[in-house]
Specification:
258 residues; 2-enoyl-CoA Hydratase, Chain A, domain 1; 2 domains; six-stranded mixed beta sheet; 10 helices; 10 strands; globular
Amino acid sequence: MSDVRAEVVDRVLTLTIDREERRNALSPEVLHALVEGVGVRAHQDDVRVVVVTGAGEAAFCAGADLVAFDPAATPLDHHEARGGLRALVLAIRGCPRPVIARVQGLCLAGGLGVALACDLVIASEAAAFGTPEVEVGLWPFMVGALLARHVSEKRALDLMLTGRRIDAATALDWGLVSRVVPAAALDATVAEVAAGLAAKSPLVLRMGKAAWYATEEVALAPALAQLQAQLSLLAQSHDAAEGVLAFREKRSPEWTGR
């Protein structure tokens, strides 16, 4: 049985890390399955939104599985296996569909990296976030690159140097998550947000997401020029014409993704 369950319901692909006994830790197999899900399955026509989550209530993902790597493997093998998180982050960022992290519990180390790679993070009030790698003699090198894009230098270093956990309310205040809701409302909120995204033009979401990430580190003047070109391309699409016409006719648009 796969350590990642994939299910499509109402155009929403849910990828669930199914290792509750290991706090949904990231093994090489889990990372590969998530990359396949986001990088291949999510591109199919019956999918409009992706949700990434973990099984059970205790943990979204507690980070890398420190006992999953083969001790007989060479240092190069270990190095290449650690590239699984990098591949997953890039796959999520490059996915043409919006990707939502549903965080119901612990979100630590590489698990925090997975959540931060997603476009939206919806967390339960019971969730907790942190980078405890320093406690076992490691450092969150790749996760740090994502932290630097979400919080201030001092806050990122606070998490990485101390290894402490912060609660969901603090994570929201720092900008690590999009929304925090009561635990009992988490599934309904994720479903509502996913359904709302699935009802929007897939072309608009794909082009908008790609443009956002393509220009996030570009200086303002060239970024504006690139975004102007993307706006002109989008304005020529069927969905743009349909959206404007539907607005004028006071009806719901019928998106074709073209």
